Amino acid sequence: MSAATAAVQDTEKPRKARSLASPVQSKPRLPIIGAAIALIIVMALLFVWILQSQGRSETVFAVKGDIARGHIFEVDDLTAVQIPEGEPIPHFLTTQQGDVIGKTAVVDIPAGSLVVPKAISSGAGLPDDQSLVGMSLNNSQLPPYPLTNGDKVRIVSTPANQAEVPRETPQAVSASVVSTEKDTVSGQTLVAVMVPKADAPILAAKAATGRVALILDGDK
């Protein structure tokens, strides 16, 4: 083999090597590109879902002002507020107005609080073994201290006017205050108390005579 022929062959070898390598380098990586595009799409959809879920809310009922136990709900007592959708706290949607209006508050509800199912009742909200008794009392029949809902009290029988002080401890009925209201016409204070059913008839009869006095006790 001549020197010229050998030189030609040597120069052709790298070209063949390059020609063999180039098809491999230029071949597109389709599986990797496809996976990347799919991931981008999934991430974009997830981002959109997060934005939409954060903006979801529902309109529910709250109370405008303080609601006392025993109050019967009217339309003017309610206001609409927005809470996140799926909030675990029980509530009433504004589309459930019929489930709230006309119902009785069984506990005190502070202004701005949500109306929850356990806070209202279709009746007076009293336990089955309890009764509600109303009394009209003047200042001398009441302690010189404001009564609030839930106060523990005793209603004591008092003697007739100008009668002697009883030698024995007067009969008393234990009760808890449900509500109080000042009668601006008579000046009397209207007090509603919750008592055991067995004590309700005798207390109502005594209260009707006006010969009772109310004692405020400690909570314990």
Summarize the structure.
It is built from three helices and nine strands. The protein is of the alpha+beta class and 220 residues long. The protein is rod-shaped and about 110 Å long.
Structural class by sheet pairing and helices: alpha+beta
Question: What gyration radius follows from the Cα positions, in whole Å?
Answer: 41 Å
The strand line-up of the biggest sheet is 5-8-7-6-9
Q: What proportion of the residues is helical, as a percent range?
A: 25-40%
Could you list the spans in which at least 5 consecutive residues all have pLDDT below 50? 16-24
Could you describe the largest sheet, including whether it forms a barrel?
Answer: 5 strands, antiparallel
Output the number of helix runs: 3
- Distance linking N and C termini: 121 Å
**Which sequence of SSEs, written as H and E, runs from N to C?**
HHEEEEEEEEHE
Which descriptor suits the 3D outline? rod-shaped
How many β strands by DSSP? Answer: 9
Strand content: 25-35%
What is the mean predicted local confidence, pLDDT? Answer: 80
Topology:
Layout: H1 3-26, H2 30-54, E1 57-63, E2 78-84, E3 104-105, E4 120-121, E5 130-137, E6 152-157, E7 172-182, E8 189-196, H3 200-209, E9 212-216
Antiparallel strand pairs: 1-2, 3-4, 5-8, 6-7, 6-9, 7-8
